[in-house]
Amino acid sequence: MLYFRTEVDILKKYAIPYKGLSTGKHRFEFEVDDRFFEAFENSEIKRGRARVEVELDRGSALLTLEVEIDGEVTVECDRCLEDCTLPVHYRGELVVRFSETQEEYDGEVMWLSPAETEVNLAQYIYESICLSLPYQRVHPTDENGRPTCNPEMLARFRIVTPEEFGRIEQEAAEHGAPNPEFEKLKALKDQME
Ligand SMILES: [Zn+2]
C-alpha cells in the first residue's frame, strides 16, 4: 500500500514502532519540511513545513491514531501560476488493522501484516495535507476582495484572444500528449467565461 519511492530514507523517520508499546495512549510528534515533499514523485506541493501530532491508542486488536497537522505549504496558484503559500490545518483519525491478506488502504483504515512492527505514516501525512488544501489553490484576496496574484502574470494570460486560444488548442491536439501549460490555460479560460 505504500507507493512512494521506498529508497527515500527521509520518509523512514515517519514510522511508529508500536510493537513495544503498552495498550493505551501514546503521543508522537513529527516535523515535515521541504525534503519530505521532495520525496513524493509529481508532488503538487513544492515546499512546506508542518508539525504533526499523533495520539496513538493501542487496543488489543487495532491501533487508533488521532492525527493533527498544522503548517503551511507552497503550491502553484491556479490563477497566476506563481508560488502561493497556503495554510494547512488537518485533523483526522486513522485506524490500523491487521490481516495476513493484503487489504486495500482506503484513507481511513490501513491494513498491516501481523508480522509488521511499525506503522509508517508518511503516505498518510502527505495525503492528509493534500486533502486539507482547498479545491482551488489561489492567492488570497486583499481587503478589497481583489486577488493578491502577480498582476504581471495575470496580464499575460488576459491577452490570450479566442483566436490565439484556438491555435494553442489546435497545436495541443496535433501533438497528442496533454500539455500542462495548455491545461492551465484552458482552466483559466473556463474560469473567465
Ligand atoms: Zn495567484
Overall structural domain count = 2
Outline: elongated
Bound molecules: zinc ion
- Total beta strands: 7
Strand percentage lies at 25-35%
- How helical, in percent, are the residues? 25-40%
Rounded Rg: 21 Å
User: Helical region count?
Assistant: 5
**Structural class per helix/strand content?**
alpha+beta
Largest sheet: 5 strands, mixed
* Strand numbers in spatial order across the main sheet: 2-3-4-5-6
Low-confidence stretches: none
Mean pLDDT: 85
Distance between the termini: 41 Å
Element string (H = helix, E = strand): EEHEEEEEHHHH
Explain how this protein is built.
There is one protein chain. The chain has 193 residues and is of the alpha+beta class. It folds into two domains: 124 residues, no CATH class; 33 residues. It is built from five helices and seven strands. The strands form two sheets. Strands 2-3-4-5-6 form a five-stranded mixed β-sheet. Strands 1-7 form a two-stranded antiparallel sheet. A hairpin with a 6-residue loop joins β4 and β5. The longest helix is centred in the C-terminal third of the chain and has 14 residues. The relative contact order is 0.15.
